[in-house]
Amino acid sequence: MAFELMSGSQAAAVAVQRVGIDLVAAYPITPQTAIVETLANFEAKGELGGEFVSVESEYAALACCYGAAATGARAFTATSSHGLAYMHEIIHWCSGARVPIVMVNVNRTIGAPWSLDPDQGDSLSQRDTGWMQIYCANAQEVFDTVLQAYALAEELLLPCMVVFDGFYISHTYEAIDVAEKEEVRRFIGPPGFEAQVKPGSPGNTHALTTGENQLLLVRNRHETMLRAPAVFEEINKRFSDIMGRSYKIIDYVIPPGAKTVFLAAGSTSETVRWALPKLNNTGLIQLRMFRPFPAGQLRSVLAAHDVEKVIVVDRNCSTGMGGIFAQELRSALYEMENPPQVQDMILAGGVDLTFEMLEKILIPGPDESRTEDKWGVDLK
Fold first, then answer.
1. What CA–CA distances, in Å, run from 71 to 86, 195, 196, 240?
2. How far, in Å, CA of 364 to CA of 322, rounded?
3. Where are any strands of DSSP class E within 127-217?
4. What number of H helices and E strands is found in the chain?
5. How far apart are CA 11 and CA 146, in angstroms?
6. Which of 66, 67, 78, 154 has the fewest other C-beta atoms within 10 Å?
7. If residue 251 lies in a helix (H) or strand (E), which one and from where to where?
8. SS3 of 152, please?
9. pTM, 2 dp
10. C-alpha span between 265 and 290 (Å, rounded)
11. Confidence of residue 301 (pLDDT cuts 50, 70, 90)
């Protein structure tokens, strides 16, 4: 391994090149474009190892990946914002067909109006489509998670979405430890899943079915995804043995006696982690795996540390309901005795999280309904 200076987007592309990719199909969209540019450069130099297909739209990109994966090929695409929304129909089809595609989504606000800031609503709007979702906090996590995502997807035969914030991660350069191809191949190996479509053997797959059969398929997908945390632990052990780094589904730093913790996903968790030494008696839970939602693990951590309050940093908003991570956490805590209070801090639109915001929300005001408590910035 060797340290190299690269952006989050470049880290994703290099990881894809290292896994022994068979097909990349992509369409550019800011702030994801650097991923496909880097992969196109690999292809132009003869270093990609697979085929790069320039398609006419994001819809076509994922459809192309679906066709490739159905033949047993390792496929990849990347997108963002409206591009992900345009893929929506095929996103459902890929999970229903159980093809282990890996896709990177670089968070960006969905209009109207146009915005380039990293609201997480694009990926979170796909939370019910049957894709696993893992959120990254820095470029090193991006590189490593793409590798782990292929191992996880191919083991469970479910597609996986690797998610990180636009610009804060996609365009920020960091020194990361880059595994060589030989190490990556030793970790992941060749594609081991069976082709659904075989040249010379024509057939009809995923044709019309009954509601009863569909129920069985939905239940099977659901039960398979619930296995993802345990399978991830096995994959991570193998990854750690080879690469020397280890990841958890949720990561946390909770000092002794801390009664308040922040829960965050993506780059905001790095901001909270940096601020912790200046925030007295405060901890952090970094949410990495969002689908499946690690409800049991969260309950265990909160109960073990006797946490009284969780402040959820939501760079998103489900209109009419509130922050999505906070919704999921409240649902998870329903089965918990003496659950902690959940307070939402909404930074929808991709608003940057600052130390001043963290300080302000930790200090209770005379009016608990004040707008800045929920929305992160004073909107009065």
1. 24, 5, 6, 31
2. 20
3. 132-135, 160-165, 173-178
4. 15, 14
5. 9
6. 67
7. strand 250-253
8. helix
9. 0.95
10. 9
11. very high
Q: Which of 142, 130, 61 has its CA nearest to residue 99?
A: 130
How does strand 250-253 pair with strand 282-287? antiparallel
Question: pLDDT, tens digit, for every residue of 19-76?
Answer: 999 999 999 999 999 999 999 999 999 999 999 999 999 999 999 999 999 999 999 9
The first and second tokens of residue 368, run together, are: 């608990």
Cα–Cα distances (Å) from 281 to 24, 98, 253, 297, 353, in that order, read 47, 45, 11, 22, 20
Whole-number Å distance between alpha carbons of 271 and 313: 11
CB 7 within 8 A of CB 171: yes
DSSP structure string for 85-144: HHTHHHHHHHHHHT---EEEEEE----SS---S--THHHHTTTTSS-EEEE-SSHHHHHH
Spatial contact of 303 and 256, defined as CB atoms under 8 Å apart: no
Tokens of 150: 């292929």
Taking CA atoms, 151 is separated from 71, 96, 125, in Å, by: 18, 19, 25
Domains and CATH numbers, the chain: 2-189+209-243 (3.40.50.970), 250-375 (3.40.50.920)
Cβ pair 21, 74 in contact under 8 A:
yes
Contact 81, 109 (CB under 8 A): yes
